[in-house]
Amino acid sequence: MVTIADVAAAAGVSISTVSYVMSGKRTISQDTRERVESAIAKLEYSPHASARSLASRSTNVIGLQAPLRAGVDVHVIMEIVAGVVKEARDNHYDILLLTSDDADGLVNAARGSRVDALMVMDIESEDPRIATLRELSTPTVLIGLPSGAGDLICVDFDFEAAGRLAAERLAALGHTRVALFGAPAEVLERHTSYAVRLNRGFLAACEELGITGSVHACPSSADAVDAVDAVLDEDAAITGILFHNEAALPHVAAHVRNDATKRDVIALSPLQLVHGVAGLVDTIEVPATEIGAAAARAILGALEGETTERVRLLQPRFSGASAV
Amino acid sequence: MVTIADVAAAAGVSISTVSYVMSGKRTISQDTRERVESAIAKLEYSPHASARSLASRSTNVIGLQAPLRAGVDVHVIMEIVAGVVKEARDNHYDILLLTSDDADGLVNAARGSRVDALMVMDIESEDPRIATLRELSTPTVLIGLPSGAGDLICVDFDFEAAGRLAAERLAALGHTRVALFGAPAEVLERHTSYAVRLNRGFLAACEELGITGSVHACPSSADAVDAVDAVLDEDAAITGILFHNEAALPHVAAHVRNDATKRDVIALSPLQLVHGVAGLVDTIEVPATEIGAAAARAILGALEGETTERVRLLQPRFSGASAV
DNA sequence: GTGAAAGCGCTAACAC
DNA sequence: GTGTTAGCGCTTTCAC
């Protein structure tokens, strides 16, 4: 293993000089800098991460608690994580995947100085982790928007606005009886933040618009077809649909295409997943990668001591992607 | 921040005693142990991870390079990662998500002592990372089976055997013209390990069985329907199908169900994803979680100095899940 | 513009 | 069964 002492010896300088060349916290003569840098390159030196964080009291690692729970759409999760990872990498931060779903995992990572900051996904409206996080002093960003977040930073897509937007569009298309098919039952039962907000926005807008709206859980499998049919059979007056379940969409879309009745379906989904899906009036994009990137930027900003907005919600818009 | 010295003072012992209580590497009197443990609990002490790894020369972190590349099925990836994470957590290891797709990311993590071991996914048959990994001296496990792995540990599902198994089943069902619809074109073009092996097993078995087999790329979107139709239109004699594209399956299955022609379709997929999908003769399970867990066990074993088998391939079998 | 040296919080000899 | 202490490889004062 090559250490800073090896580099210093090879360059004929002291170890502190090597350190300062790397950090740029001191002015170094052109000559010295070049000798040190070529020694680093020649020896393939890479500083020992633990030694560095012990001395500098910072790890350049962000702890990420990503959901491996039932019901959440893995594709969306992965896109968000990809956004986080890319933004973190570009700023020389690594991501530590926390291997526990509860508050303990977060506390341990923070207490053991494993991470500089925490990022928590799959937030519920009344999330039990929040109380713990608030008294942790470790900078934290939630991807979601729970109640009682205190001054924890929150970043997410504005699902409430998306619900309103969809309702308005359906109303404008002339529908007076509309339905939202959304997350599977287990996600709703947990009061997952995004589902709660989507429902709220959709129903509130329906009421304001004077149309009848309803929300329904939707399984994330082929069973979705039967679930949707059951609802539509019972209330055939439903002609406008907002569909927010990425995994179920392919099943249902293929079904709808073969359906005689003429209904308007709006999808709420990352664009990539609706590609080629037939029978949609339009799509509201869930900008998953951008959510992750925004969350990462927020936490990096906080680590730099920036005081930014505490809540950042990405605004919805129609993509115009009305397939086939 | 509470340190080991605080605990030692509170318990009235030396810091080494505290350390030994935690590691169990020394016999401690019942009395002392209790005093130390209650001091730890009372102070909510958690050892500084970097200090520990600097002194112990091990991080208890496994670096994971997971693919964020085009074409790979995120659902399968996530399940594998979940398997890795669970197994790692149960053995007190954390997972560092490497934020770069290339060999450099691996080298940096290893050189900087950020990780004790590396796990690499999305392996290509002739993977450019392998040469680098082989001379790295950091224990490494590949999820895949490339050529020239040297003594790098390889863990994966036996896709070649799965291809054979499916061909045999289709032949037994009386089909003489069979097709494999598999990964999207970009995955095949990279010569991704699993796709190459699946194709090889399928075609080899067909030849041995004296039936005609062909393999076809399949887009992972709704476009899959058209792609499949194009092939079947051109060669209507194809009556047996092996389908290995989780994202496309819902689209195609719904389509097949409405298809007049009677074809037998075998799916190769995690069981969860075929739930409720109609029209399948049978399913060969891709045990994604188990792949991840096996990979984790392999790397943990290697870190303990165990000498296990260098290649471990999980064997395929039919699940009997012939839906609807 | 550069060096020397005191820690950072822990582990693991080495003592008794 | 327990304590003392020399590092682990860095960052960052302090000194010149």
Description of the structure:
- The structure is a homodimer of 324-residue chains.
- The first copy, chain A, is built from 14 helices and 11 strands.
- The first copy, chain A, is 46% helix and 15% strand.
- In chain A, the strands form 2 sheets. A 6-stranded parallel sheet of chain A has the order 2-1-3-4-5-11, with helices on both faces. A 5-stranded parallel sheet of chain A has the order 7-6-8-9-10.
- The radius of gyration of chain A is 25 Å and the shape is elongated.
- The first copy, chain A, has helices at 4-11, 15-23, 30-43, 49-56, 74-90, 103-111, 128-134, 159-172, 185-189, 193-209, 223-234, 249-257, 271-274, 288-303; strands at residues 61-65, 94-97, 117-120, 140-143, 153-157, 177-181, 212-216, 240-243, 264-269, 282-285, 311-314.
- Chain A starts with a helix and ends in a 10-residue tail after the last strand.
- With 324 residues, chain A is α/β, with parallel strands linked by helices.
- Chain A folds into 3 domains: 4-56, lambda repressor-like DNA-binding domains (434 Repressor (Amino-terminal Domain), Orthogonal Bundle), CATH 1.10.260.40; 61-158 and 289-314, 3-Layer(aba) Sandwich (Rossmann fold), CATH 3.40.50.2300; 159-285, Rossmann fold, CATH 3.40.50.2300.
- Chains A and B meet through α4, α5, β2 and α12 of A and α4, α5, β2 and α12 of B.
- β2 (94-97) of chain A pairs antiparallel with β2 of chain B.
- Chain A binds a DNA duplex (16 and 16 nucleotides) through residues 1, 3-5, 13-17, 19-20, 23, 25-29, 32, 47-48, 50-57, 113.
